[in-house]
Amino acid sequence: MHQRILLRARKGPFDVLTPEETYERDWIGKNSGNLVFSHTAYKLLATSAAEITPSRFRADPRDADEINEKYDVFVIPLANAFRRDYAARLVSMTRLIERLKIPVVVLGVGVQTDVDGDREYLRPIDEPVSAFCRAVLDRSHSIGVRGEITEKYLRTLGFSAVEQIGCPSMFLHGDSFRVEKAKAALDTEDRLAFVISPYVRALAPLVRHHHRRYPNLRYVAQGLYTLGTLLYGDAPNLRGKTDDMPIHTSHPLFVEDKVRMFMDPWPWLEYLSGFDFAFGTRIHGTITALISGTPGYLLAHDSRTLELARYFDIPHRLMRDVPADVDAAQLYEEADYTALNEGHKERFARIGAFLAKHDLGLSFADGDSATRFDRQVRETVYPQAVRPASAHTAEELLTRIQWLRENQTIQQKITARRAQPLREQVKQAVGGRVRRMLRR
C-alpha cells in the first residue's frame, strides 16, 4: 500500500546545498547533528511503498488542511525538544498537530535539564509539553522517547503511553553494527576527533592540553555560528578577539587548519572513519563517529546527552567528574564497547516494533530498500568539509566573495519585490489622507 509520509526534517538526504547556501538559509537547523537523526529516520522509513517529503521545519497551523489532504502520516523525529528555550516552537507544533486528522508519530524526543534530572527546572514547560503529548497521543499509540530521564518526566506529567526507543541515528546500519578498538592504546601521533560544544566552558583546559599533545587532532564542528566563522571569518564586533575555546579565527585550531565542518552526514561519516578515536560533549558528533566505525567517548554535560549514552551503552563520563588534566588515551583505554555491541540487535528490534505498531514500514525489512538508499547516497555528490578561510586559495576565496555578491543582489531584488505592495499601501493611505484634508 502506497504511504505518503510527511517527515519533520530541515532537508532530505539527497538535497545537496553548498556551505554558503546552508549558512544563508540555515539548512542544518542550527546544528548539523540534526541531519544525522532526521536522515537516518528517512532511511528507516524508505520502503518501496513510502513516499517521503521533508517538512522543512514548517509548523504552521494554517497548513493543516493541506497536510491532511496530501499525507497519510506525519512522522516527527525530535531531539531535545522538551526544553525551556524551545517552548514557543513546541506550542506552534502542538497547534498544528491539534488540527491534523492523520496519525502523528514522534521518534525519539528528549527532555533537557541537568544530569541529575532537575525537576524544578522543568516546571515552566510542564504545560506546553503536556499539551504537545495530549495532541500526539490523540493521534498515536505512544510517544517514542530517547531514554529513561524523558520517560520518567512524562510519567510525572501523567502520561503512561511512553516507550524508550533511543535516537534513530544509531540505527543507520540496521542491526549489523559493531565498534571495535583497532589498537590497544592511543599514541600521540594518532588521529583524534574532538567533538566540542563551544558553550561548555569546562572543556577549555582539555582543548589546550590535547592541542599541544596530539598534532593530528581535529575539531569537528556542528554549529551554524562556527560555520559562519569558517566561511567568512569573525563577525565585525569580534575581530581580533581571543578565547581559550575555538570560537574565533585567532584560536590555534583555526590558525593551523584543524577545524572541519560538514553539511551532510555522509561525507562526515567517511571522514570520521579515518580516525582512531573521537571524544567530547557532542552527542551526535560521538554517534556519528560510532556509526562510522570509530571508537567514541561522550563527556555528558546534561540530561539529553546522558540518557542517550545510557540507553545505547556508549562509553561516557559526566563532564563535572572529568578532571582538567584527563587525556584522551585514558578515555580510550577505559572505553568498553561490549554492552553497546551486544545490546544493539535488541534495541533495533525495539524501534522496529515501535514503527510497526504505528503502521510504518522498515526499509531493512523491505527487500533491498535499505541497500537502494545506500546506493543513492554513494551516487550523490555532496560538499566536502568546510575548512578555515585561511586554508583556502585566493581563487577559492574569490569564488566565495562572488557568491556573496550575487546572493546579495538576489536578496535585494527579493526585498524590493516584497516591499512593493507595502509601498503601494502607504502611497494609497497617504493619498487618501491628503484628499480628505483638501476636502475640509
How would you describe what is shown here?
The protein is an alpha/beta fold and 440 residues long. The protein has two domains: 3-173 and 342-379, 3-Layer(aba) Sandwich (Rossmann fold); 192-338, 3-Layer(aba) Sandwich (Rossmann fold). Helices cover 45% and strands 11% of the residues. Strands 9-8-7-10-11-12 form a six-stranded parallel beta sheet, with helices on both faces. It starts with a strand and ends with a helix.
Can you summarize this structure?
The chain is built from 18 helices and 12 strands. It has helices at residues 19-25, 33-45, 64-70, 87-98, 119-122, 126-137, 148-156, 204-213, 224-232, 252-255, 265-272, 283-291, 303-312, 328-334, 338-342, 344-357, 369-379, 394-439; strands spanning 3-7, 50-54, 73-77, 104-107, 143-145, 162-164, 192-195, 217-221, 259-261, 277-280, 296-300, 316-318. The strands form 3 sheets. It has a 6-stranded parallel β-sheet, sandwiched between helices. A 4-stranded parallel β-sheet has the order 2-1-3-4. It has a two-stranded parallel sheet with strand order 5-6.
Number of domains: 2
Rg estimate, integer Å: 24 Å
Structural class: alpha/beta
Number of strands: 12
Could you tell me the CATH topology label of the largest domain.
Rossmann fold
- Indicate the overall shape: globular
- Which stretches are poorly predicted, pLDDT < 50 over at least 5 residues? none
For this structure, the quaternary state is single chain
Helix content: 40-55%
- At CATH's second level, what is the architecture of the largest domain? 3-Layer(aba) Sandwich
Beta-strand share of residues: 5-15%
Number of helices: 18
Distance between the termini: 71 Å
Strand adjacency order, main sheet: 9-8-7-10-11-12
Main β-sheet: number of strands, strand sense, barrel status?
6 strands, parallel
Give the CATH level 1 class of the largest domain: Alpha Beta
Which whole number gives the mean pLDDT?
A: 93
Q: What is the string of helix and strand elements?
A: EHHEHEHEHHEHEEHEHHEHEHEHEHHHHH
